[in-house]
Amino acid sequence: MGRLLAVFLAAVFLTMAAPLRAERWKVQYFFDENHDTMMIEDLAFPSSQRGIAVGTIYNQFNPERNVRYISLLTSDGGEHWAEVPLKDHPRSLFFLNDSTGWLVTDSGLWFTEESGRSWLKISEQKKPDRKLGVTPPGGLITRVWFVDPQHGFAVGLQKTALESLDGGKTWKPLEEAAKPEANAGHVVYSQIWMDGTKGVIFGSSIPPRVDDPHLPTWMEPERAVKRKQIPTMTLLLQTLDSGATWRSSTAPLFGNIIAARLAGSDGMAVFSFAEGFEWPADVYHLNMTTGETKRVFAEKDRRVTDCAVFEGQRGFLAAVEPPGKLNTAPVPGKVKILKSANLNDWEEMKVDYKAVARSVVLAGPDPEHQWAATDTGFILHLIP
Questions:
Q1: Which residue ranges of the chain lie beneath pLDDT 50?
Q2: Are 106 and 89 in contact (CB under 8 A)?
Q3: Which of 272, 248, 246, 277 is nearest to 259 (CA)?
Q4: For the domain bounded by 21-383, which CATH number is listed?
Q5: φ, ψ for residue 13 (rounded to 5)?
Q6: Tens digits of per-residue pLDDT, 280-293?
Q7: For the chain, what is the mean pLDDT?
Q8: Which of 117, 135, 338, 365 is a plausible cystine mate for 128, CB 3.0–4.6 Å?
Q9: Residues β-bridged to residue 237
């Protein structure tokens, strides 16, 4: 009897002493079809069960051949994904809830009430003014945000910042967005995020440089690393009343803003830099109450491409480890994801070794339910 009791107690103590299994990011989906590759453009998870990814499928050896546009849908937390074809090149997603969402494409704005199973085109994209400068093909709008089914905002190229009161069917300009003194042909309002009554729109004014190389930086690496980063104008539109009024401001800052998030009194913003800078990206913590900003992350071998922030100062950073000296090289690098409990100290998490990318986006309704998608066709899930 005494021996059995000793064995039992030993087993209990061993169980208690065993370390808890650390959170990790597991590959949940990977597009692998002959010589085709899927570039995921955006990812949305309005709840812990429903998610949608949109992207472009192209041939690795001939990117112009048999290009297809596709969405991936899940209703069981990513255990299974259904492929639904799209009619146009997707740019970004916004979902108000599990079923109601908007999709921005090159040609227009699309609406769904069926969680992305079908889409209805509700407005056409306004074409860029070629007189203002060279722009990518397609329309001006790159991203939307809706505070309710009717009231929404859109941002994009050539100083575009718009408001809709009919669910996105018609749009009118935000007058405050035109006030910053910058050539509209060089301005992109690229980020919009709202939380409660607070909201921000970020943009950049990036005039062409006289010393711009004729070839991509990865084809002229020595020249790329020697080109000094110069300040650009960062534009900010801020609202404290759900978009009824906006206040604009500008600041000369290094880098281009590529991600911004809000949660209560906390915000985060990610700035990306060219090859000649000391590190590839900066991450800032924004105090939405005091207006103070603080750099909280910058490492030479981590190119941050997205962030997520939640109440209680919990946050995540999605990054790529550049495979060489050039942080913008077209060769995918290892996916790296970091977490923080105070938006200041960051801990690197375990990520499936197979996941590689040039860019990573994050999505999820809360810190316990998070997903990441890459421009190489991976979707990863945070596993406790």
A1: 1, 4-20, 214-227
A2: yes
A3: 272
A4: 2.130.10.10
A5: -65, -35
A6: 999 999 998 888 99
A7: 88
A8: 135
A9: 201, 248
Give the phi and the psi of residue 364 in degrees, each rounded to 5: 160, 150
Paired tokens of 278: 């000391």
| Domain range summary for the chain, segments of one domain joined by + | 21-383
- Note whether 51 and 42 are within 8 A (CB): no
- Class of residue 50 by CB neighbours under 10 A (exposed 0-12, middle 13-18, buried 19+): buried
Q: Which pTM was predicted?
A: 0.88
Sheet holding 360-366, edge to edge: 350-351, 24-30, 378-383, 369-374, 360-366
List the one residue out of 21, 56, 61, 26 whose CA is nearest residue 42: 56
Label residue 106 exposed, middle or buried (CB < 10 Å: 0-12, 13-18, 19+).
middle
